[in-house]
Amino acid sequence: MTAPSTGTGPGPRRPLDGFTVVENDSFVAAPSACLALSQMGAEVIKIDPLKGGPDIDRWPITPEGRSIYWGTLNRGKRSVAIDLRSEEGRELAQALITATGEDPAKTGIFVTNNVGRSFLTDDVLRAERSDLIHVKVQGTASGGPGVDYTVNAETGIPGVTGPAESPRPANHALPAWDLLCGQAVVTAVVSGLLQRSTTGEGTYAEVALEDIALAAVANLGWYTEALQPAGERAKHGNHIFGTFGTDFTTADGRSVMITAITTRQWQALVDATGMNAVIDALQAALGVDLSLEENRYAQRETLEALLKPWFAARTVAEVTDALTGTGVLWAPYRSIGEVAADAAGASAAGVATGVLRGLASEQLGEMLVGANPIRFDGHYLSGERPTVLGEATHQVLSEKLGLSQTELGRLSDSGVLNS
Q1: Coil, strand, or helix at residue 260?
Q2: Can you tell me whether residue 41 is helix, strand or coil?
Q3: b/e string for 140-161 if b means 16 or more Cβ within 10 A?
Q4: Of 50, 215, 280, 286, whose CB count within 10 A is highest?
Q5: How many angstroms separate the CA atoms of 98 and 92, rounded?
Q6: Three-state SS across 271-284?
């Protein structure tokens, strides 16, 4: 599968072309950050244990048992498999991280989420290279453990997620805090490069998953809201808090999400569904102005009941025909499989699929992956290649550290490297 770039003419020079990033990590946050850095042009060298990290076999997997999860998040990287329990292996890892290369301004960048590896602490590495840009992902700011699921539970978000009638908390399936954390890591790396270019000094940045989650929720105003006289927000199911928007079921059993956040969107919805007279009568009876979103929110259940028959009488295709071009902000619910099938089909036909790309992999078969969502001069940055555990070990150590074939053979025979 292939997909053309968006934009015209040759693609832009990628902003991190020529830079080298070394990572030693697992799971989502740090690997997703390094994937983004790779898409922006950086050479990413991933230091892996000989048999892979704790996520090497994580689901989802192919029928053959290979991890789609690991293969997708770690594509576009050069995997170097080293026995990090051996003294020689630890020294090789340190040397890769602190190597200056031909252009020291573009090397000495390290991203990690490792715990308990004393040979990779900042003081040890900085003693070898003082201008190191070192970014560490943590569970909590105190250094304690944490993953997206546990951090999310502590934010309070599951208490306002899910069906309104259910007393149980509901976790969302998307690892949102991991992904936000990954982008914060990218920011920390780029900030470190800026500081080093202006002062010559390196940086050590720590990004805690828990801090990412708490800061995000706080900056939305949700904790301040909970301190108000009305107290904590209740569950609202699929209703949008503070305005009108919810899901409706169509005649063919599909679901659509309708939003009317602005006055214009609300009026477009009323016009498209032919509900003008009904809404006018409702406003007169209740003495409210439904052009104000706070009033639409207060009357959300009544408005839902009034609009429900219109959607129930039409198939999703008929809803599409009726709402297209009207200014109504809406979308049909699609399954993950439907999105994948549509994108894969379009890509196979040579039709542009935007941020989604096809990628052929001997290990995983046909993959559907996402390019970097930042468009430079109208182009998505992609160009990834599949990654196989340890495939670049000998080549990288020869290129970066000058190890001879004899030395590489000795290290392989002694079990420090993969063969």
Answers
A1: strand
A2: coil
A3: eeeeeebebeebbeebbbbbbb
A4: 50
A5: 10
A6: HHHCCHHHHHHHHH
Residues 279/290, Cβ–Cβ less than 8 Å: yes
Among candidate residues 148, 178, 252, 377, the one labeled active-site is 178
Closest CA to 97 of 199, 202, 3, 181: 202
pLDDT the model gives residue 7: 40
The yes-or-no answer on residue 178 being catalytic is yes
pLDDT, position 47: 98
DSSP sequence for 53-101? -TTTTPSSB-TTS-BHHHHHHTTTSEEEEB-TTSHHHHHHHHHHHH---
Q: If you average pLDDT over residues 130-135, what whole number do you get?
A: 98
Q: Is residue 366 helix, strand or coil?
A: strand
Mean pLDDT, rounded, for 326-347: 95
Token output for 381: 């940055």
Q: Report whether pLDDT(344) > 80.
A: yes
The 10 Å CB-count burial string (b at 16+, else e) for 85-95 is ebeebbebbbe
For residues 176 and 184, give the distance between their C-alpha atoms in angstroms, rounded to a whole number.
Answer: 12
**pLDDT reported for residue 384:** 81
